[in-house]
Amino acid sequence: MRIFTAGISTETNTFAPWPTGLRGFEEGGLFRGNASRAGEGENNLVARLYKELACADGHDFVEGVFTTAQPSGPTLQSVWEGLRDEIVDSVRAGGSFDVILLLLHGAMVATGCDDCEADLVARLRKVCGPDTVIGVELDPHCHLSQALVDASDVVILMKEYPHIDCIERARELYALCTGKALGQIDPVSALFDCRMIGFYPTTSEPMAGLLRQLREAEHQPGVLSVSFVHGFPWGDTADTGSKMLVVADGDKARARRVAEELGRLIYAQREVLLPRMPGIEDALDMAAATAGRVVLADTADNAGGGAPSDNVSLLRAMLAHGVRDAALGAIWDPMSAQACAEAGVGARFALRLGGKCGEASGSPLDVMATVRAVREQHDQHGLGSARQPMGLSVWLECDGIDVVVNSIRTQVFAPDAFTGLGIELNDKRLIVVKSSHHFHALFAPIADRIISVATPGAIQMNFAGIDYRKRHDLNFFPREHDPLA
Fold first, then answer.
1. Is residue 340 assigned to a domain?
2. What are the tens digits of pLDDT across the range 125-148?
3. Are residues 8 and 46 in the same domain?
4. Is 362 within a domain?
5. Are residues 239 and 324 in the same domain?
6. Does the pLDDT of residue 406 top 90, yes or no?
7. Are 63 and 97 in contact (CB under 8 A)?
């Protein structure tokens, strides 16, 4: 068989104050046919896996464009069309393919297209015809449209949040798509709308238990795959919301029945699943009363959801409380990072930090900062074994608090976001990370307590109050108490 693979990924916060341009994809990694041979990012690892699997099975393997951009506002239409057409043209020029495997996000919006993933797959289908098997792996924080399901042969989502199972799901997609191409299975899909908008970490109950039930359902006769669409609340599209996707072997009625059964299981827990977080003052009091090391999550200023990551409200409160033995990161402030790098290690001076990008950034903070370390190309451990670039980064000491300031916008995934600059965490009582939940995977082992904080910023958890304009159907929980009644 002949197998083609490619991928374009970004998570679009349609309320973010600036668009995503080509530079965003170049910063995240833009590979043209060589992703499997270069880099350790998620795209590289998936491309490498597909190459290894295809070669081991004796198949012809061709890879096209792989690229990703940090979450931000809508992608410029010209950028989207350029990347999309590169993939489509590669398939057209490459001759016939038996299988196409795509690593996409599912919540990518361009300035002229609200469903980029369906747009890409529909164009590929037109080029390759009905006999080519097209498989798509998505992030669970996606807007899964019926159009994408209909244009694809198989769609599956990562199950975990934090998304630690990307490679596992890619292996699953490969098996399902090659099985379809060989005539061993006949995947058919059904999508159930849970009529919910929410936030569903899988590291704690009740989602941990619900996820176990989804996995158990995959062992039912005739069920090939089960995926829960968490949805991305901060992307305003017609398909925004939580859904259940089931792939069955040739039995559409079974797929529909299982999708509804599992969707209603999650719907029954909707009140419990609503996030309830303390504000900054309460969170700092809770941390002060806790023996041991506490990790606070600055959830609303998370670059991983499209926020600027330069809101310094939590740092301001920590300084006002006289907090010591603490570390905070990462504040996206390229201007400050450059000024500190030029000043050099040991320099101490007045610095205006953060608050630069717009209303969600809040006001800047004036501090006396001492430059403790500078790293031109800092990075951190990302999801899986991938590395996440942070760019020019500095370690500042501000009245007893160690602060990481970086120039490539990203959420904090791992302790080496701090330790890679020389910040010792063993002696810290308080560690603050700008992230909503991905940090759990690597910070939980060093934390005695984790507190998610309702901070000011661009990613608010008041889902009933989000000002949707394109999602015209507002009959969803929590805006309505029982929308499935």
1. yes
2. 999 999 999 999 999 999 999 999
3. yes
4. yes
5. no
6. yes
7. no
Instruction: Specify whether the backbone of 401 is left (phi greater than 0), alpha (psi in -120 to 50) or beta.
Output: beta
As a three-state string, the secondary structure of 7-18 is EEECCECCCCCC
Query: Which pairing describes strands 348-353 and 326-332: parallel, antiparallel, or unpaired?
Result: unpaired
Per-residue pLDDT of 208-222, as tens digits, reads 999 999 999 999 999
Residues 374 and 264 in one domain: no
Query: SS3 letters for 194-254?
Result: EEECCCCCCCCCCHHHHHHHHHHHCCCCCEEEEEEECCCCCCCCCCCCEEEEEEEECCHHH
Name the average pLDDT for the chain: 96
- For residue 471, tell me if it sits in a domain: no
Stretch (H or E) spanning 365 = strand 365-381
Separation of alpha carbons 219 and 196, rounded Å: 26
236: nearest Cα among 476, 466, 470, 462? 470
- 95 and 76 co-located in one domain: yes
> Is 189 in the same domain as 208?
yes
Residues 163 and 292 occupy one common structural domain:
no
Kindly state the DSSP code that residue 299 receives in the 8-state scheme: G
**Total number of domains constituting the chain:** 2
- 125: Cβ contacts below 8 Å, ≥ 6 apart: 132, 134, 151
CA 301 from chain center: how many Å? 14
What is the torsion angle, in degrees rounded to the nearest 10, for the CA atoms of residue 428, residue 434, residue 440 and residue 444? 10
Does the reported pTM lie above 0.90?
Answer: yes
Amino acid 317: pLDDT: 98
Give the residue from 274, 158, 143 showing the smallest Cα distance to 206: 274
Report the percent of the chain where pLDDT is more than 70: 100
Structure tokens given for 26: 């170049």
Q: Is residue 95 part of a domain?
A: yes
What single DSSP character describes residue 33?
S
pLDDT at 18: 87
What are residue 137's DSSP bridge partners? 103, 156
Residues 355-404 pLDDT 10s: 999 899 999 999 999 999 999 999 999 987 778 999 999 999 999 999 99
Q: Are residues 44 and 164 in the same domain?
A: yes
* Nearest by Cα to 390 from 403, 409, 404, 374: 409
DSSP state letters, 420-463: TTT---TT-SEEEES-SSTTHHHHGGG-SEEEEE--SSS--S-G
Domain that holds residue 334: 280-460
β-pairing, 60-68 vs 2-9, is parallel
Given 272, 295, 323, the domain boundary residue is: 272
Do both 172 and 297 map to the same domain? no
